[in-house]
């Protein structure tokens, strides 16, 4: 197994260790404002992922309201969950251009809009557009920045920080399930959805807390600084202070500014008072030109960084272990989502509604999920423990529970399995840590965007597939068996590829010696 990207011999060539010297640690790395970032991410997980985990309540309301098939109705929840994750690579582009804070605030507004418009739904296709697409894209624009910012602000306690922030999913699933159930009972599902949309506006406040780190702070996270990076940071800071872009485009803009200023000064000298008004208009045009030029440089720089991660020489897909990680993500997430969406229906089939009303099975998953994330994060941060091994063990436990779930028909047995599912699914807090170990902080936003995109495809197809299988067989058993087997295939990829990579690294020095 491996513990970091150095262990698998992969380097993106960012040159962070060349010509470097130790730096004094930054107070905001692993402390200070970093804990405000964790708090912000925690509330994002409550409002975004927690709400999505509670969609089983709304799914039952939509089945009664619109009288459509289970397969078609399940697409509403699946679209919302899937699109939240599928848009990850494109949100990476937004982050490269606008930063995490701006992206998250825009996403909060869009998410709230999707919930509010869904309150006026007249049919299921309408919900596809408002709840599935609009709210889903908004959720994705908030979720990815929340994960990336925690990764940027923490180094020594990454797993613990990610674990604490992502416990919001468990808290949110528990709170939002109770809230939506109460609101639907007292006010009806339309008013419940409208109120949830108003609550979702708090995502904008969470985004406002995501204060970006400077390039200097990012390098200090690792305690090193390169001389070339110093010059770049100075140039960037000077550009930010003066409001002028750097590089060749900046020189062109400066020349335009100088010539325009000279013309303005000449007009002032020759035309007197009448010329001052014209000069004022010229200066206004100059400010607009500077703003457009600065925006153009920002967009081009962000797009270049984003595209190089996918198509350049340092493409993420040249890392074979990362590719295996993506394949695993394609199969994994549906095995976790299917129980949340369909457990209320399964409980009704087994005539366990009275026991489930006392303590819902989805709430058991949500509560234990909280402890699972924190405990697995603490274990992974221990110096003698490999994060990768903890990640794999949790995956094995989860897939075993998914394959066993159809065999349980008593409430006690289902409750025990749901508790194990909740605890083992705590590995979600380790996913950003494993991704960062594979590709580094510089590529974390784009790499994690790809991972959650693969998860999104899994979440998008899983619940409708389970509903379709039920419509044919009148049972959910085969849905759990098939999703569990596919999940096992993904785990096999995770096991095989790092071993092949390490073997090649061992054989490479021998080949060079023989040559």
From TrEMBL:
Domain of life from the UniProt record: Eukaryota
Protein's UniProt keywords contain Transmembrane helix: yes
Annotated membrane topology: Multi-pass membrane protein
Transmembrane segments: 33-55, 75-95, 102-120, 126-148, 160-180, 192-210, 321-341, 361-379, 386-405, 411-434, 446-466, 478-496
Keywords: Membrane, Transmembrane, Transmembrane helix
Annotated Pfam families: MFS_1
CDD domains membership: MFS_MCT14
Compartments where located: Membrane
Sequence ranges assigned to domain Major facilitator superfamily (MFS) profile in this UniProt record: 37-502
GO cellular component term, pick one: membrane
Chain residue ranges for the region called Disordered: 224-279
InterPro entries (alphabetical): MFS, MFS_dom, MFS_trans_sf, Proton-linked_MCT
Molecular functions per Gene Ontology: monocarboxylic acid transmembrane transporter activity
Protein name: MOT14 protein
Species whose genome carries this gene: Centropus bengalensis
